[in-house]
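Field reference: sequence -> structure
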Amino acid sequence: MDFSKSFSFIFKDSSWKSKIFIGGLWNIATLFLIGHPFVLGYFFTVLQNSMKDEEPILPDWSNLTDKFQKGFMLLIIYFSYALPVIIISVFLDSTIGDTDALTLVLILLLIFWLPMVTINFARTGDFMAAYRVNEMINTIMDNTGIYIPMVLLSLAIISFSFFFGSLLLGIGIPFFTFWGFTVSAHLFGQFGKHLSGSDQKSEKVNV
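Structure field:
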């Protein structure tokens, strides 16, 4: 994987400023519970384009229906994984008291798990691929040296983009964080491409 490529690919697109600006506006719309599917759908499209080497990797904002559908499916998947964490945290808090540490651990596990879920869904286009737990655990275990740095770098990118956005009196946060989302999406796409290459090598060996 070429991590540096995930930072540079955006600037090779002559329309990157307008695409990021519009994405930032949709990011603002998430405050009103409107923009989530569109932001996630765009993120998912960048991931797939990166994984398949489709140009332009940074898509335009046409075909909003497609972006909404992809984003809405991701919302359902993310919510289905987040709900058990919420239920467990509330239940334990009401029965044994302060469980902040345990809740934090569960949230961190979820944060490290969801990228693999997203990538597995993107690779196959099969909604149920997001729930093939054993398959995804094995994939992570076989690629720990790549997966963990990728997730940590993604978290760092989002954190720094939020920080730099906040320096502009908070006005830049939705635009900088949207840029961070696209970088993370490209990283995930590279990992998906790496997995596809590994699968092809395995098939050749088996043949």
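Note: The helical segments are 3-8, 16-29, 36-52, 64-96, 100-124, 133-142, 144-166, 173-206.
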